[in-house]
Amino acid sequence: MLRLLTTLHKELLLLLRDWVGLLVLFVMPAVLVIVITLVQDNAMQALGQGATEVVLVNEDAEAVGRRIETALDAVAGIELVKAVRGRPADRSAALSAVARGDFQVGLIIPAGLTAAVRAEARQWAQAAFSPRSRTATGGHEKARLELRFDPTVLGAVRSAVKSQVQLLLLRIEMEEKMAALSHLLPRGLQAAGTEASGLPGTDPVLEADTPTADQQDPQPLLVVAEDTALSEGSTPVPNAVQQNVPAWSLFGIFFIVLPMAGSFIKERRCGVQRRMLSMPVAYLTLAVGKVGAYMLVCCVQIGLILAIGRWLLPLMGTPAFQIGPWPASNLAVALSAIAAATGYGILLGTAIETYEQASMFGPISVVIAAALGGIMVPVHAMPHVMQQLSHVSPMGWAQEAFLELFVRGGGFGAVSGSICKLLAFAAVCIAAACALFVRKRRQGKI
Amino acid sequence: MRQNIKEAWETVMATPSAPILEVTDLVKRYNRAARPALDGLSLKVRPGEILGLLGPNGAGKTTAVSIISTILRPSSGRVTVCGIDLWKTPRRARPHIGLVPQEIALYAELTAWENLAFFGRLQALRGARLKERMASALAAVGLEAKAHQKIATFSGGMQRRINLAVGILHAPRLLLLDEPTVGIDPQSRQLILEKLQTIKQEGTAMLYTTHYMEEAQQLCDRVAIMDNGRILCQGPPQDLISAQAPCCSLGELFLHLTGKELRD
Predict the structure, then answer these.
(1) Which domain, by its residues, includes A160?
(2) A129-148: per-residue pLDDT in tens?
(3) Residues A157, A126 share a domain
(4) CB of B122 within 8 Å of any CB in chain A?
(5) Which end of chain B is more exposed for a tag (fewer CB within 10 A), N or C?
(6) Which residues of B touch A268 (CB under 8 A)?
(7) Residue A48's pLDDT is what?
(8) What is the percent of chain A with per-residue pLDDT over 90, rounded to a whole number?
(9) B71 to chain A: which residues are within 8 Å by CB?
(10) Peptide bond into B246 cis (omega under 30)
């Protein structure tokens, strides 16, 4: 244990004296999080491209429901999905899938929509001919469609989908109103003619009263209820701060691979590793001590970036970063991401021969993993092929877990899959590094 | 652990002729290599003896040092240090071994004192004993005044001296020196050679590899000249020179035995 602490102490001393390395580790992610968050605070509302997946639940088996479905299916940029995990979607499954982030939008067409819309249209038409009957329609509950958004969906995507749905509903509404008017018009004209001739016997439903523009009900027949899909017990605060602070924290901690791999390579090339292997201490103890020091640095890094999000960014006009209701889950995701980053650092440090190679390969691989993982552009805003590729990025797993906690308000259950993937990645990297180390040692390359 | 070291040392001292290091029929084959790097190497080093291991590049010197320092596992053969089988119980043997690698195996951004403290703790030295050994090692290489300077600020000669100080820090019974004086100033070299003589008088056995023949002739009690993984001759330098007329120096003998063609 004392030897492990000795190694840890030595490694921290070396890190403290490496000013350039510290700049890379702390200042770079700190500057990135400030700049990108401030830039995206407005820009995120104007981004978004590619097809938006909308999970549709049509509980209305009648004409209006079918027309909405057909019309939405024909909209370019909207991809209708009617099944969740291979089963026909119902309301609860669809809302859960949107809350999980499986789909960006959920649209629920309620049962009885056609009947409700037609009744509304009839009443509207009657009111048009008979102002006195209008009072009877007042306070009537409107037919209501539910539109739910994944909290990570960009503002532009929200606006586009909502506008499309509203335009569509307006068209259907006009058609239904016209149909109701066409149905009542002959009787209305007859009533008007009777009144003009002074004869009794007007239609009891319609009284002679020519509809005027100011008498028409301005309220729509169909209403869209828009909301953000969130897990239970969540505190929804979807904004650029909630997305960027964890994202750039991850970017920073994965940059630990550069000094870490460099440290392994230096020790190997300057003979320190040979000297340590000849000493009465297990090399595993030395490696654990070294990794422990870098893990501590990562923890400090995350703390710094979160503090910037919490206290510094609000001074520049953004909302404050919210930790959310699941601190233990946050910690579990952070530690798993740190394990994945340090595991990757060990592998690079063992596999790569020179510091120059590590300083090229390490940062480039981290930037690629960050881009694929949705650190720079949200995964759902990427082309389909890139979305598929994003599943192989450890940074993407960690980012998805942080979004689940900080944006969707999910708990440990929602992030356990990502945690397992990150830990498995760390284990595979360390196992590969051990195998390489044993091979190099056998070949006398140490 | 210190008790183990003490017991092993007492066993060795009770039989003065018992070698500290005994290498028997050592073979090392690397994967895909045309010939073995070591091919039946056998040698012994007794307490207070310096054995010079000489050979051209690729002769197998560094492989031999790597195996004896427990870094590399041999294909076959046996190595004992203070009577302990190196590959059966390497953890028991390691406290008796001090390694001075060919490279400056130190942390350049740490001070001399911090380097000594780190490696000393890995050698299980603690507290007052650690401080005493660190001060002694620094004094031995003449760098007490520079203890708190970073290694990166040291000259090549000073770095070599600290490299030696780390190797002798835990007072090993077997000191493995892999070209410890390469590329340094004459004063530092002289200091190192004098210090090695002092250590020798304290009973430490040493295996010394070098390309400097005059240095080996001056320092070593015996030399072993090897090539292609085999020992070509072994004995006191003067005896070997006398036996190979018309050679009149170790350098001439070395070239006579290993040839004049370049080795890369």
Answers:
(1) 50-228
(2) 665 555 444 455 667 888 88
(3) yes
(4) yes
(5) C
(6) none
(7) 47
(8) 26
(9) 274, 277-278, 441, 446
(10) yes
Residues B184 and B207 in one domain: yes
- Is the Cβ of B110 closer than 8 Å to some Cβ of chain A? yes
Taking an 8 Å cut-off on Cβ atoms, the answer to whether A444 and B30 are in contact is yes
CATH of the domain at A137: 3.40.1710
Residues of B in contact with A280 (CB under 8 A): 1, 91, 94-95, 122-124
Is there a single domain that holds both residue B6 and residue B67? yes
CA distance B239 to A261: 51
Using the beta-carbon criterion (under 8 Å), do B101 and A18 form an inter-chain contact? no
User: Which of B150, B171, B192 represents a domain boundary (last residue)?
Assistant: B171
Residue B77 shares a structural domain with residue B187: yes
Same domain, residue pair B77 and B190: yes
8 Å CB contact of B94 and A279: yes
Do residue B74 and residue B144 come from a single domain? no
Q: Tell me, yes or no, whether B143 and B245 share the same domain.
A: no
Residue where a domain stops, chosen among A184, A207, A228: A228
Poorest-confidence range of A43-52, A69-78, A297-306, B202-211? Answer: A43-52
- Look at chain B and report how many structural domains it folds into: 2
Give A186: exposed, middle or buried? Use CB within 10 Å, 0-12, 13-18, 19+. Answer: exposed
Q: Write down the pLDDT at residue A238.
A: 58
The answer to whether residue B152 sits within a structural domain is yes
Please indicate whether residue A239 or residue B120 has the higher confidence score (pLDDT).
B120
Q: Which of B171, B196, B213 is the last residue of a domain?
A: B171
Asked whether residue A201 carries a pLDDT value surpassing 80, the answer given is no
264 residues of chain B, pLDDT tens digit each: 555 555 655 555 555 568 999 999 999 999 888 899 999 999 999 999 999 999 998 899 999 999 999 999 999 999 999 999 998 999 899 999 999 999 999 999 999 999 999 999 999 999 999 999 999 999 999 999 999 999 999 999 999 999 999 999 999 999 999 999 988 888 889 999 999 999 999 999 999 999 899 999 999 999 999 999 999 999 999 999 988 878 788 988 888 888 767 666
Question: Quick one: B73 and B110 in the same domain?
Answer: no
Do A258 and A348 fall within a single domain? Answer: yes
pLDDT digits (tens, 9 = 90+) for A148-167: 888 777 666 777 788 888 88
Please tell me if residue B27 touches chain A, with a CB cutoff of 8 Å: no
Of the candidates B95, B101, B109, which has its C-beta nearest A275's C-beta? B101
State pTM to two decimals: 0.73
Domain boundary among the residues A228, A246, A272 is at A228
- Report how many Cβ contacts below 8 Å link chain A to chain B: 87
On whether both A163 and A249 belong to a single domain, the answer is: no
| Residue B159 domain flag | yes
Instruction: Give the pLDDT mean for A397-409.
Output: 87
SS3 at position B27: strand
Band of residue A200 on the pLDDT scale cut at 50, 70, 90: low
Q: Which residues of A touch B28 (CB under 8 A)?
A: 444
Is residue B29 assigned to a domain?
yes
Range of the domain at B167: 102-171
Cα separation values, B48 from A346, B15, B20, B175, B181, Å: 42, 13, 9, 11, 20
CATH number of the domain that B258 lies in? 3.40.50.300
CA atoms within 13 A on the CB side of A74: 7
Are B70 and B191 part of one and the same domain?
yes
Between CA A342 and CA B79 the distance in angstroms is 37
User: Which tokens sit at B50?
Assistant: 């310096």
